[in-house]
Amino acid sequence: MDQKAEILLKYFRENKSQRAIGKELGISRTTVQKYIKEFETKNEMLQELMKNEEQNRAEKLLLIEEMASKPKYNASNRKKAKLTEEVIKEIEQFVSQNKINKQQGRNKQLMKKIDIYEALIDKGYDIGYTTICNYIRNTYEKNEAYVRQEAEM
């Protein structure tokens, strides 16, 4: 919120360019441009709503709140940058080898998550330990809960 307000003040009050604001604050010029465009479109909508005094009061308040709020980012459609199909196949091979070793009673030869991570690093993959842990936990580890019940006789 503070950064957004600072950008708008520098642009509208101090008449600084978008590039100068970006350099001064250490952020991308396109981010500065996005904030300014967003403010201008919402300001135009607010001016339209202000023509009707009592009508659309709730919409006016909502629009003012949106103008002053923190920016919202939608990260739901982002692709995993490091967890590629190739890395997933390698992890699946390690997990399937673990299943085979477990079935054959070789429990000491099971690979832990840290072992899988180190093996992937040795093969030249650039991936984080947390990424591997999250993938294995979400894909292979099933959480089961048992509820203890007593039968009435």
What amount of the residues lies in strands? under 5%
**Biggest sheet details:** none
**Structural classification:** mainly alpha
What is the radius of gyration?
A: 27 Å
Anisotropy-based shape = elongated
Q: Cα distance, first to last residue?
A: 64 Å
Q: Helical content, roughly?
A: 55-70%
Low-confidence segments: none
Mean pLDDT, to the nearest integer, reads 83
Listing every helix as H and every strand as E from the N terminus to the C terminus, the arrangement reads: HHHHHHH
H/I helix tally: 7
Let me know the number of strands.
Answer: 0
Structurally, the number of domains stands at 2
Task: Give structural notes.
The structure is a single chain. The chain has 153 residues and is mostly helical. The chain folds into two domains: 2-68, no CATH class; 85-139. 61% of the residues lie in helices and 0% in strands. It has helices spanning 2-12, 18-25, 29-50, 57-68, 85-103, 113-122, 129-139. Helix 1 (2-12) packs antiparallel against helix 2 (18-25) and helix 1 (2-12) packs across helix 3. The radius of gyration is 27 Å and the shape is elongated. It starts with a helix and ends in a 14-residue tail after the last helix.
